[in-house]
Design brief:
The structure is a homodimer. Chain A is an alpha/beta fold. The first copy, chain A, has helices at about 5-10, 30-45, 50-55, 60-70, 85-100, 115-125, 165-175, 195-200, 270-280, 285-305, 335-340, 365-380, and strands at about 10, 20, 30, 80, 105-110, 130-135, 150-155, 180-185, 205, 220-225, 310-315, 325-330, 345, 350, 355-360. In chain A, the strands form four sheets. A seven-stranded mixed beta sheet of chain A has the order 4-10-9-8-7-5-6, sandwiched between helices. Chain A has a four-stranded antiparallel beta sheet with strand order 11-12-15-14.
Chain lengths: ~400, ~400
């Protein structure tokens, strides 16, 4: 049984703030500061270049990957860390297209995160061989799984609405049509139980600065099903994906398994922070997280329905088809979120009109949710959002 | 006049070690620890998601880029930071090929860093339209600049021998033949004066963990000549290269100038360390660094010639055609380097037989060089490398 008081104590949470934006950037793990000091003084500062072997820096991307693997039903050494999520989307799509050479369509939905679509657009343009990115509304994915589709690329949890795709069912349907699947787990990893192995998913990618609390710009990850990874000839064939990087041979030869998906020198400092953040999950059961997340989400929805009737719920009402966030629409959504942040309730705004609340049970309690809705109701009741300073548009992040 | 005692004081240098491997990984800047603590407590820990605007995280990749620009003769806001050098090679080559669409050859030399060649191989394979990677010995580059060459991709300073290409002359010759240039500055930036503007170089890339001392896996950089950057349609078109990333529009539109070369969320923690490391250069004149580097290199070569006659110099003898490192060949090079490291002199080994010494004047003195050669001579004179424990091959890093 996960002790959420114990997990909450492992984060720095600023006094007077209720943080409902962990789905953009998780808070600082308490242990991060000490870990970084140790890394600077006892590793980099003492071992210098020797840290790559003596401090285990070189293998860290797989060590951390193995810890993430446990949360998402992935096998040992099936995950490589590094780069950014957008870059991992590129690697994933390039690999998936290679695995399905006779077909030309990348299928996604209109609720996918824009960067995933941008990356697909850039890849389609640069490969210049009649590929097509096809997007349909999320509800129409099933019918769109046709014989010309090479790759189904979806984000499991919609970044705006929190709508949750059925990964196992869609992967199965895709496979029946000979389609390779690429799942973006940005809003899933550490938030909801994921079982890549049971779903027989082909490729998955994700970021680690949201529900894993790895810090701003923390390294991304890529998973490839061990059954197919050896068929991939990496498009971005960097030296750390080489079979023997330190032989410095002139020709690329892919490393065994997932190693081939590494590109360049691992981001050791960031991996150290992330590795520390992963300690929190050592005593966490994702089923407990899911139960508590649903409890918090249902509470938020109920409280808002009672106290903030002008907000329109745009997340699914059925918690089984929703991730760990709840979003509402309001024509003054932007100003409302500015007013909320001013009063210590930190959520997020997503154009054109969505206010978004992430519910991370590791550090958010029912009392937080109730307190947040009291403030939200006050802002709405008294039209506090109507102040001029809240009308000026600028990126809220 | 650069005060090298003052720069040396800004690094943590372990007692009893002479560090001649800053060309693999620079040492820890003293100020890094405090900067990281501040970033954790006053920025991420206090501002949470707000740090992206309030602490300037979002612009940090250009702010740091501007500081690097000053060292390599690049214009303000012509450099974007992020990812790894291998990835930047991919971006650079993809862009360069786009700028020269009618041609099919990527020309490089056999002394280029293997990852640059691997990346070119992967790109050539994936684009699958008759492109060719052609490599010739470094001395034959000039004659190889023929009309079918689209891109000349060279590392300015050879990672093994330290041989230095004449960037200005080769860029000029390349341009006369209608060839786009990609310069890898991994062993140049912070080591020797570079003037991308004067050379009218097209694209350049580099890493920041060597002579810039940004830490293991520190972010890489890419430079694009402002005169041509707007003609590039990025192949890796991530959201942070978008014109308006926070509009979350469905279609990619490249950001202005160099902004389009960003891919994903900036690695803020690593950028903070690098930004601190760049403070050291505020009072450094690269012409002084070059003068001192030549002095140290000439001293090392002279001392080795006198005291270690069995070592064969494989770096150029003329300092004007050499970077900031000196390499020697010896059939027992690997064991010699292991013995040296055991006795506190940290250099590097590069297969098959090269021992390599980086001379970074910011923290290496003439006394260091003399002391290192005394130890090296002792190892050679007494065949200390002949011990069994030094024969076992493993990555030295």
């Amino acid at each position: 049984m996960t002790d959420f008081n114990q997990t909450r104590a492992q984060f720095i949470l600023p006094e007077g703030k209720i943080y409902l934006d962990g789905n953009s950037l998780g808070p600082v793990p308490v242990a991060a500061a000490e870990r970084l000091q140790k890394m600077l003084s006892d590793e980099w500062g003492t071992m210098l270049i020797g840290g790559w072997s003596q401090a285990g820096w070189m293998d860290m991307s797989f060590d951390v990957g193995n810890r993430i693997a446990k949360l998402i039903g992935a096998a040992e050494r099936s995950i490589a860390m590094g780069d950014t999520l957008s870059l991992k989307v590129y690697q994933a799509l390039a690999a998936a297209l290679q695995l399905n050479p006779g077909r030309s369509v990348i299928l996604s939905d209109t609720g996918n995160f824009p960067s995933d679509l941008y990356i697909a657009q850039g890849l389609v343009r640069s490969l210049d061989r009649g590929l097509e990115l096809r997007t349909v509304p999320p509800a129409e994915i099933e019918q769109a799984l046709t014989d010309d589709v090479a790759v189904l690329m979806l984000t499991e949890v919609d970044y705006q609405t929190g709508r949750l795709h059925d990964m196992a069912a869609l992967t199965d349907l895709a496979h029946q049509k000979g389609i390779i699947t690429v799942w973006d787990l940005a809003h899933s990893t550490g938030a909801i139980p994921v079982d890549l192995g049971a779903a027989n998913a082909d490729i998955a990618i994700g970021c680690t600065y949201k529900y894993l609390n790895g810090g701003p710009g923390a390294p991304a990850f890529i998973y490839v099903n061990p059954a197919i990874v050896d068929r991939i000839q990496p498009t971005i064939s960097g030296w750390l994906g080489h079979q023997n990087p330190f032989d410095f041979s002139a020709d690329y030869a892919p490393g065994p398994g997932i190693e081939r998906m590494r590109v360049g020198t691992p981001p050791v400092i960031a991996l150290n922070v992330l590795n520390t953040a992963m300690d929190v999950f050592d005593h966490v059961d994702m089923a407990d997280v899911r139960r508590q997340s649903i409890k918090l989400s249902e509470l938020l929805i109920a409280e808002v329905a009672t106290h903030c009737p002008s907000l329109l719920l745009i997340s699914p009402t059925d918690p089984m088809t929703r991730g760990s966030q709840v979003s509402f629409a309001h024509q003054h959504g932007y100003a409302i979120m500015k007013a909320l942040i001013d009063r210590g309730v930190i959520g997020d705004f997503r154009a054109p009109d969505a206010i978004r609340f992430g519910l991370a049970p590791l550090y958010i309690s029912e009392a937080d949710v109730r307190a947040a809705v009291v403030i939200l109701a006050d802002i709405l009741d008294n039209r506090l959002w109507d102040r001029p300073e809240y009308q000026v548009r600028a990126a809220i992040t």
